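DM from R.C. (forwarded with permission)

"hey, sorry to bug you on a friday — could you get me a structure for this? deadline for the figure draft is monday and I only need the backbone to look sensible"
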Amino acid sequence: MKKIREVRTKIDQIDIKILNLIKARFKLINDIAYLKKERGLVVYQKQREKELLKKTKEHDFLNKIYKSILKESKNYQKYLIRRFTKGKKIGKIV
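My reply, with the result:
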């Protein structure tokens, strides 16, 4: 039988991958926010979000997690657009 420590180690490895992917996603949000500002587009794109959430509709817990990621993505885009508007440099995502 596996030890709890072994399973937790595997979970920790997966968590690192998840966090790195989320960081990579948020780095790309810099580009999206800039392009939306440049083209006069609004942050919230209803159809895009609907398409993204379709991928998780069969699993309620995944849907909730993904909605949270999308919410924070929109908040970050709004923050970036305010910064772009004021001409301030954007910091790096750690």
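R.C.: lifesaver. The chain has a mean pLDDT of 90.
me: no worries. The chain has three helices and no strands.
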